[in-house]
Amino acid sequence: MDRVLIARQSVPPQNAAPSGPPYAPTTAALGGRPTIGLDVPITAVFLFLFLCGAVSHMTIFQLNRRRGHKFLFSGALFGFCMARSATCVMRIVWAFRPTNVSIAIAASILVAAGVVILFIVTLMFAQRILRAAHPRSGWHPLLSWAFTALYAIIVASLFILISFTVLSFYTLDPTKRQTAHDLQLYGSTLFAVMAFLPIPIVLAGVIVPHKTRVEKFGSGRFRTKLYILITAAFLLSLGAWFRVGTSYLPPRPADNPAWYQSKACFYVFDFGVEVLVIWLYILVRVDRRFHVPDGSKGPGDYSGLVAKTSANEGLDKACGEGRMVTRLMSEEEVFDDVPEEELEKADREAAKVHDIEK
Q1: Is 269:238 a contact under the CB 8 Å cutoff?
Q2: Residues 78-123: pLDDT tens digits?
Q3: Alpha carbon distance 158, 113 (integer Å)
Q4: Angle between the 273-283 and 73-96 helix axes, to the nearest 10 degrees?
Q5: Among 66, 177, 267, 306, which is least packed, fewest CB within 10 Å?
């Protein structure tokens, strides 16, 4: 869970007369309490960007659905944009009702929880890269179960942390607040690790020697997919690790925040990096680049190799009868960086040459 929630858990001073529950925060949080003059205009801009992102992802999802092009990630990204739109609305409402603790709790939880959707989507893209680069090991049951366990841990941790965060606003018991604080530190660290994890997964897929040809999937070059994924993971990691770093620092009074708790840092490392990622996914059309055939369950399914086996058997038979079918391989093809459609075109041309010679 983000440090937005963590910074709010300090017990009020003994000489204070806390009103509640819920109890108002006594320590500074990233971004602080929103104000009408500064935060409302900035948040309205981000609200517009998130709403446009939601419309774009849902439009892409519906157009693909009508063509039979199944890509559920567009629906997930639409859900994230709508969740962030709700977050912006809550922060605007909070700016007009600054003393309402319930609104502050809702806005803080939405800020902390929404980004988990982007973490999971990016991690699933990395899983597809790994399976394409190393089909046998990438599709191994143990590795598949490991990824499933990661997704389950993320979701379970999110629900637990939200529950304890809400509880911490409704109690003054030091033990309960310390437990909530520890769980929030665990959650923010876990999510930061998950945000960074796609980068080593992608690098491992490239660096570790290939035992089989890379299975091309989707449209565009394979190396372009790597660049897109590493860029998105870097942006998400930048925000996540900034938040987790500040959450481990000593708390500051609400009226004396540190520089890393400023509104500029909040909008840059929270909403800013998220807007960049969702629009990156729109502009590069991840629905085309990271699409895989429906029902993919093992090696050969991404590239359609299983479906092409019968066609390849015909060429193998021709070679077995002494009729050689050959063609020169380009440098890109040797290094698995030629689009799949070009490979298919080259195979068709080789087959035509074979038919003419026959």
Answers
A1: yes
A2: 999 999 999 999 999 999 998 898 898 898 889 888 889 999 999 9
A3: 7
A4: 150
A5: 66
